[in-house]
C-alpha cells in the first residue's frame, strides 16, 4: 500500500492522489515507484479523506514545522481532501502548509479555487516547466486546453492572495528558456526557484 505521508530530505510530504492532468516528460512517476523514505507512492486506490486526515493526526511531526502537499499526482485534483487535510495540519498540528502544484487547479475544479486555498495554504510552488505555451505543451503534455495561460493566471491569483508564491523549474531546460523564465518571473512579480533535476 502506498504511503500517504512520506519524508524526503528534510520535509514531510502528503501524497493524497494519483490523479494528474499533466503527463510531464520528466516526471519521476514514470521513472520509479517511490522517493525519499518510501518504496512506493502509487496508490492502488486513491485514499479517502478520512484516511488522509487519520494519517496526519497519527503522524509524529517532531522536528518538522511544515507539511507539503506533493505526491505522484496533482493535489488540486483532490481539492476537497487537500483543503480538509491542510486545515487539520494547521489547526491540530500547528504546521505550516505548502502546495506544490502544476497550477491547473482552477481548470480542474471549474472555477477559482484560490480563495479556498488561501484559507489553509501558507505557500505555493508552481511548476512553470517552460517559459511559453509552445514549449510548455511539448514538455508538460497537459490534458486541458490553453494550459499555459491558465497556469499563469492561477499564479497571479495566488500572488495576490497567498503570502508566499514562487515559480519552480528544473535546471535541464536550455539556457535561453531559463532566461525567458527569469523574464516571466520579473514580469509577474513572482520569484523563480531553479531546482536541480535528480
Automatic annotation (TrEMBL):
Checking InterPro entries in the record gives:
Aldolase_TIM, Organic_radical-activating, rSAM, rSAM_sf, rSAM_TatD-assoc
What PROSITE patterns does the entry give?
Answer: RADICAL_SAM
Cofactor section: [4Fe-4S] cluster
Keywords, comma-separated and alphabetical: 4Fe-4S, Iron, Iron-sulfur, Metal-binding, S-adenosyl-L-methionine
Q: Name one Pfam family in it.
A: Radical_SAM
Residue ranges of domain Radical SAM core in the record: 6-198
The secretion signal range is none
Please name the GO terms that the record assigns under molecular function: 4 iron, 4 sulfur cluster binding; catalytic activity; metal ion binding
| PANTHER family listed in its UniProt record | PYRUVATE FORMATE-LYASE 1-ACTIVATING ENZYME, PYRUVATE FORMATE-LYASE-ACTIVATING ENZYME
* Protein name, as recorded: Radical SAM protein
Q: Which organism is it from?
A: Agathobacter ruminis
User: Upper lineage ranks?
Assistant: Bacteria, Bacillati, Bacillota, Clostridia, Lachnospirales
Amino acid at each position: 500500500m502506498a504511503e500517504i505521508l512520506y519524508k524526503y530530505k528534510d520535509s514531510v510530504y502528503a501524497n493524497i492522489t494519483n490523479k494528474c492532468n499533466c503527463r510531464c516528460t520528466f516526471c519521476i512517476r514514470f521513472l520509479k515507484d517511490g522517493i525519499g523514505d518510501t518504496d512506493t507512492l502509487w496508490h492502488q486506490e486513491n485514499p479517502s479523506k478520512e484516511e488522509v486526515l487519520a494519517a496526519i493526526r497519527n503522524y509524529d511531526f517532531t522536528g518538522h514545522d511544515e507539511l507539503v502537499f506533493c505526491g505522484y499526482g496533482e493535489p488540486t485534483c483532490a481539492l476537497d481532501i487537500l483543503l480538509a487535510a491542510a486545515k487539520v495540519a494547521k489547526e491540530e498540528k500547528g504546521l505550516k502548509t505548502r502546495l506544490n502544484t502544476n497550477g491547473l487547479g482552477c481548470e480542474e475544479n471549474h472555477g477559482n479555487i484560490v480563495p479556498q486555498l488561501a484559507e489553509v495554504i501558507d505557500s505555493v510552488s508552481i511548476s512553470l516547466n517552460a517559459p511559453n505555451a509552445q514549449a510548455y505543451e511539448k514538455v508538460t503534455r497537459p490534458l486541458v486546453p490553453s494550459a499555459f495561460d491558465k497556469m499563469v493566471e492561477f499564479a497571479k491569483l495566488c500572488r495576490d492572495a497567498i503570502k508566499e508564491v514562487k515559480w519552480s523549474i528544473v535546471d535541464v531546460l536550455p539556457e535561453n528558456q531559463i532566461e525567458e523564465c527569469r523574464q516571466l518571473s520579473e514580469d509577474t512579480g513572482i520569484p523563480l526557484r531553479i531546482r536541480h533535476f535528480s
